[in-house]
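This is your field. Please look over both lines of this record.
***
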Amino acid sequence: MRNVYRIAKTELRMLFCSPIMWVLLLIFVMQASGIFSGLCWRIAHNNEWGDGYFSPGSFGFIMGMWMSTCGSLHFYIPLLTMGLISRELSTGSIKLLYSSPISNAQIVLGKFFSTVMFAVILCVVLLLYVFVAGNIIEAFQWQATLVGLLGIFLLACTYISIGLFVSSLTSYQFVAALGTYLLLALLLAVGGWWQEYDVVRDITYWLSISGRAYTFVAGMICSEDLIYFPAVTVMFLLLTIIRLNSKRQTISALKVFSQYAGVVVGISAIAYFSSRPMLRGYYDATTRKDNTLTQQSQEVMKKLDGELKITGYANLFNTRYRDVAFPYFVQQNRETFRLFERFKPDMKLKMVYYYDSITVDDRVGAAYSFDEICRTMPDKTMRERAEAMAKRYRSPFRIFKSPEELKARGVDLRGERTTNWLLEWKDRKVWLRSYPGEVNHTLPLEREISAALKGLVTKLHKVAIATGHGMRQFSTTLPGSYHDIAIEKDKRNSLINQGFNPVEIDLNTRVADDVDVLIVADMQEPLTETEYASLKEYVDRGGNLIILGEQKRRAIMNPLLEDLLGMRLLDGILVQYRLPGLRPDVFISRARPVAASLSYLLDDLTLSMPSASGLEQTAERGFTYTPLFCSDTIVPELNDRQRENRSYAAWNEMESVDIDAGRLICNPAAGEVAKEYCTVAALSRKVGDKEQRIIVSGDADCLGNEEVTLMRGGNYFFGLAALHYLTNNEMPFDVRRPEAKDVRCHLTMKQYGWINRIFTKFLPLLLLGFAVTI
């Protein structure tokens, strides 16, 4: 070790006397200081002119700097390492080292450790920013931040070893720098090579350096990544030693090649085994455990004893095939289940590529695209069209199964012939879908995956909607029906993708015991005696219920509401003037504060309700009556100019809503009353050993396809919020994490001025002074 120390000391002295090192350090400090100063300005400006709320928190603040540093290291390191050995080769001084009693391993390690000191200096500089951030931000996440810094250091060491190896290959420093850039680009790209071969895919993906440090930056230590950096560093150090041995001694090319191959194969073996899920270890340093499954998801994983199979089926004719299922994206699909694999490392995950026709039962948008493919290739068979599409995607056609091959295997994809995953556990199966309508993230997230997994270990919550008498349905796509919120497969938040089983039932038969929630929406004709008896029996035995009425159906709905629940729809249609261009009969309701105590999804939710009626309680039926949504008279979105000559009162219009005939005016003589109106109410009571929960709405259009698509309020989430309350807050799956504590930053504009001057002016000048002096 003495020789290693002496070589490192000599190299370090030369490094500090090198203008390149100081120029690189100065540029790095100026870049980091600029980013840090900009972040501080935003915080100080918000403290003085905003609400002082700091998001995304301390870790998110410093993580921006870590991401920038990881992205810029590959610019600095090659320029620093390009002369480590190539300089010795070009000047001939390498012969002096060869003639001295120093081994090649000592030469390599000495030069490596000397350059590692530069990485240490970079980390010390970054610690200055961390120290300042930690003293101005409440509840600063020190552990997660330092884990990110560890990742930066390991990444720099790996880059140094790569640069050292390339420097040993040539006597030209410029060529060494360029070669290092090319090798780093190779290591970034290798993760996408040979992805169609299972074992090779795992090795090439492991060898890729792309994104490795970001696991640390996110505040997570994974043993796979912790092994990766030292392993790759050691690999290139060994390759450098072999290279110098081949120059120092007369060794056959075959022996040199075999030594190179032995090192690469040995490291690849380490790669393969360390990347196995059952051999991975994890440490999440974030305070909210952002890189770990929520406790609710972990509870589901504990129940999955035995083998869990997840099979992804990717249809070549799917419109978003390239985005989610191209063979190069296999590992990306694997990352989708990475958090779950941590708690069940023996899960079996594989992809099956195939081609088959797509119908509207699968997905409407994809069906139209498939029809377009057929029109552009009218004279070709299904197989020929698939071959043409595979060629377009540059994908080997041999990996795609035909419909006949899938059928022979017993695979039935009817209704799911796009890009989906089939989850199998014991004798149960559940579908998990992708969401092509979402541009930024088409893959399922923790909530959807956990909901699907819960459907394996317990039964899916059955949500039944009554049919007949002109009532709204799930199965039709009419503007007023509930297709989009219930069974639209492309929608992430539709019931079918959130752990529910939506079905349509006929009230002529008894409502089954396995129905968790029954929906009666916009009944246009009175129920028959048999249907009413079936509904009453369901309510009497404590079944949970949603009733959605319409103001023009009051005469039909009120007898049912009064008899079962002691409620009624008020006379008239609710109106209120709000935004210009929005009809006054498009009524906006806002959730009352008490709603959040029933379901967190109801917190501060707004609803747009065309042609709504108010609700009132008329008789005591043993229910606890809780108004959930009431008329919103605040109208916060109007500015002062828009408020002129506008009414914010809500009233029940009894005469006409013909706005073309003139401005609507509340007329007390006609029975119109301006007051706060309840539009959605919750009722609950104890029936046996369970709590019965019911929601009544004065409008049925609020959940219709048209209103949900217009997005004039939080209507799309209202259905999920209501069902969350009605299923005893079980579904949709709750993946919330504890609230962040580091949301306040004590920094004034005056303090920012000092920080800006210190880091963007004084620190660079101090380094420049050191450089000139040395």
User: Anything to note?
Assistant: Residues 2-284+750-773 form one domain. The first helix runs from residue 2 to 16. The CA atoms of residues 91 and 171 lie 9 Å apart. The chain has three domains: 2-284+750-773, 295-433, 459-574+593-634+677-726.
